[in-house]
Amino acid sequence: MSSMLDHQSEHAQTAAAGLTVFAAVMLLIAGFLDVFRGVSAIVNDTVYVSAPDYVYKFSLAGWGWVHLFLGIAAIMVGVGLFKVSTWARVLGIAIAALLLISNFLFIPYYPLWSIVVMALCAFVIWGLCVVRQE
């Protein structure tokens, strides 16, 4: 019986580590996408559409700085997630939630890209929340 419990515990730890690595990679991808979006918005790229009557309207450069800082934070936390530490998991969930909210608010400017990054952030949150410690 003990052997069976040890095997299940070993399997659970392997799955938890795999989900954390998955979340780390997804957070790194979302972070890099947000850094690219931030730089693009700061230099006033013409890729973005104008949303004149949008409630959460900032200047395009303002949105660029928000995305740039969140992207850098996501990259830093994503690298920290490879250590499979609790602090990195908590910060990963927080940063992914902030990225998800900022991308939701950015939908009128670039809908497809925002929805893709929101999906990546949702996977990160899922991957980090289902990990259970023994």
From TrEMBL:
Domain DUF7144, first and last residues per copy: 20-132
Domain of life: Bacteria
Keyword S-adenosyl-L-methionine: no
Protein name from the UniProt record: DUF7144 domain-containing protein
Transmembrane segments: 12-33, 62-82, 87-106, 112-131
Species annotation: Streptomyces albireticuli
Membrane found in the keyword field: yes
Keyword annotations: Membrane, Transmembrane, Transmembrane helix
